[in-house]
Amino acid sequence: GNSVTQMEGPVTLSEEAFLTINCTYTATGYPSLFWYVQYPGEGLQLLLKATKADDKGSNKGFEATYRKETTSFHLEKGSVQVSDSAVYFCALKNNFNKFYFGSGTKLNVKP
Amino acid sequence: SAVISQKPSRDICQRGTSLTIQCQVDSQVTMMFWYRQQPGQSLTLIATANQGSEATYESGFVIDKFPISRPNLTFSTLTVSNMSPEDSSIYLCSVLGDRDGYTFGSGTRLTVV
Q: Quick one: chain A helix, strand, coil %, rounded to 5?
């Protein structure tokens, strides 16, 4: 089957710290992988994506690499800001355009 | 990418009543998707709304509880019927965007008292 597992939060970091949010998946076929971000009081926004193995998605200083050998798509950022405080969702889309979301990881960045 | 206007943004409703949520897309789309996000949890797909045909519901969701309309290619509604406190959630509509991912509406935060 298809599923996404991501690290539980909340994750609390100081400004300018390095961020990693782990995400692993199980899937049949060749899924596309996504990270979505949900800022307080808002809907989800697409942050980045990767459509095949070894692809790296990047946006706003965040990046994630599609690792087929470890079935992972970990989100990283070298220096977080207070404005990055949000909930981050890892997701996959299977060959039938059906999405599966992880449980979300809340990030709190303190000044 | 598509822009989705969703309303209401939030509502507080009495148990036993119904609420209809509207989503308007600024371009024509074949499929629209309705999700539920319960407090502290991830997104669960309720149904896929296709223009001109009945919506396709996921396991655990039924048309009597969550009737969906899709009168044209830019608009859809989801009704949460006979509400109970367990229906308190954020409800989101979405479409497949041109970047291969979803574009989401801003969500409707529903509280049932």
A: 5, 55, 45
Query: Which tokens in the block code for residue B15?
Result: 């148990």
Q: Which residue has the tokens 């979405």?
A: B94
Q: Which tokens sit at A58?
A: 């990047």
pLDDT in tens, B43-60: 899 999 988 888 999 999
Cβ-defined contact of B6 to A43 (cutoff 8 Å): yes
Q: Is B31 left (phi over 0), alpha (psi -120 to 50) or beta?
A: beta
B78: enclosing H helix or E strand: strand B75-80
In this structure, are strands B10-13 and B108-112 parallel, antiparallel, or unpaired? parallel
- Confirm or reject contact between B102 and chain A (CB < 8 A): yes
- Mean pLDDT computed over every residue of chain A: 93
Q: Give how far Cα A109 sits from Cα of A9, A14, A16, B15, B24, Å.
A: 12, 5, 9, 38, 34
Min Cα distance A79 → chain B (Å) is 26
